[in-house]
Amino acid sequence: MPQALLALLVGLAVCQIAIFCTTVFLHRTVAHKALSVSPGVRFAFRFLVWITTGIRPRQWAAVHRRHHAYTDVEGDPHSPLLLGFWKVQLANALLYRKVARDGENTRRYAKDLPPDRWDTVLFDHALLGLGIGIAILCVSLGWEWGLVASAVHTVTYLLLNGAINAFGHVTGTQPYPNTARNNQWLAWLTAGEGLHNNHHAAPTSARLSLGDGERDPGWWLIQVLARAERATVRLEQPRFSKGNVPATTSAP
Q1: pTM for the full predicted model
Q2: For a disulfide at 72, which of 105, 178, 179, 236, Cβ 3.0-4.6 Å?
Q3: How many distinct structural domains can be found in the chain?
Q4: What value does the mean pLDDT take over residues 123-127?
Q5: Which domain holds residue 147?
Q6: Radius of gyration (Cα) for the chain, nearest Å?
């Protein structure tokens, strides 16, 4: 296989690993507590997030929880309805970083996620984690192609995460009455995150596919972990937020 093609495929594969870690761990486990995972799986997720994204989970959770508290109104960290589609699509990481670095925001929205010893020693050192991730690729592919794979992963990851917030609040279907939107094509690329309208309708659901024909690859991974007794789903049935309860579903 040509080295260029190999670097491209490895970069895309690393991106998908980061995407699955983001949706299953950062989003559904940490931010919404829709499921819990065993200590070993939790550490593995933390390590993979660290070397592929450098994200601090408590900061990510704080930014995301603020998004739910101020969805598409003043105070939303990354609403395309307020900031414009292209700003969110292309500068989503900068918007996240601006709020993530606000210590007061983290204290307010992630007070249940204090840093532990592993954070102090490893996971709060983003550049170290990213450096280790890049070094692994360079050792595996050679430094030139390792850097290419790293660039492919970085650009793809940033664009896909931007798309969740940009497309996810501008275009797509709205089976539930909230401002978010579903895009199944995006859900295939982001391990289910494209089903954004569903998520805003039932934020604590570990499953994002709620309707016929919807597919949530992140949920498939959760099912594998649950069957291996390495994860526990919090709710058997989605708990819909106020105003989003389907006609056939009784309010909790």
Answers
A1: 0.93
A2: 179
A3: 1
A4: 96
A5: 3-233
A6: 18
